[in-house]
Amino acid sequence: HSGRALVATSSADEDFIFAETPIVFLTTVEKAAELSGLFTGEHPWNQIRTRVTQGDVMSWGKLRYSVANPVGSASGLTTLGMMAADSSSANTPLPSFLKEISKGLFYDDAAQRGSSALFEAYLSELISQGGSPRDFIVTYESNVLRAAHEHPELQVRLFYPSQTPFAMHRICLLESAGADMARRKVAAAFLKFLKTPEAQRIVMDNYLHPRFVPDTVMDSVKDSAGVGFRTTKARASLTSYNTSMNVLQLWNEKVAPTLIK
After folding, report:
1. Exposed, middle or buried by CB within 10 Å (0-12, 13-18, 19+), for 235?
2. pLDDT 10s per residue in the chain (261 long)?
3. Between the CA atoms of 59, 85, 68 and 251, what dihedral angle is there, to the nearest 10 degrees?
4. Could you give the C-alpha distances from 240 to 31, 38, 244, in angstroms and in order?
5. DSSP-derived 3-state class of residue 205
6. Residue 216 DSSP one-character state
């Protein structure tokens, strides 16, 4: 790039997060009471690992869950980071922790294809079959809220981890040695628009959390969804890039080969 920065960072109007959505656990109303304690404890993935390694410990039998492929999926990679944090709390080496917790993983084609495919498969199973082989999935809150409004008959509950990670929608102005000033002005105007009440209303209409109005404006969504939505959450610290890549390498070496036949 001839020594020029790729991203414009000279002001907060050129590089910012304009929307976000929490990563949540999703299950059915029928199973929510039995699973809620696993999801809302201090170290949920350590609790889940204990259950899947104990065998038939749920009232319906073995615990099965789905997480999106962490290769190319933000929710899947973030979930791996949560697992890594919980392995430290359990004083268990991460390779062993990942192999043990994967014993409960329902890792079909939908999960391998990513977050959207996994959520759509789970939704389809619940609507068309009245149940799913997955006891829960990890997904985005925005997916759940949209589905709850489009399918009022859906009997699901979402749960937030005690330290909740957020998927953030970030936008930035790009620098270019040969930038067309007219196009740059249009791009800058669009970024400015994203901070307006009109744009933030569009963000909320798509079941995302707007960043430039109080989060409590989502209360109208909470009141009508009836799936366990709440505005106040404890934010999880993001796993560093290097840590995420190390965990992903372990996943690819120790877990993925045992899942993909």
Report:
1. exposed
2. 445 555 566 667 788 999 999 999 999 999 999 999 999 888 999 999 999 998 878 999 999 999 999 998 999 999 999 998 898 877 888 899 999 999 999 999 999 999 999 999 999 999 999 999 999 999 999 999 999 989 989 999 999 988 889 999 999 887 765 567 788 888 889 999 999 989 988 998 898 888 887 655 666 555 555 677 766 667 777 678 888 888 999 999 888 888 865
3. -110
4. 34, 25, 6
5. helix
6. G
User: Phi/psi of residue 153, each to 5°?
Assistant: -80, -10
Hey, what amino acid is at 31? K
Rounded to the nearest angstrom, the gap between the alpha carbon of residue 256 and the centroid of all alpha carbons in its chain is: 20
Q: Give the separation between CA 5 and CA 36, rounded to whole angstroms.
A: 47
Q: What is the 3-state secondary structure (H, E, C) of 139-185?
A: EEHHHHHHHHHHCCCCCEEEECCCCECEEEEEEECECCCCCCHHHHH
Record the pTM.
0.88
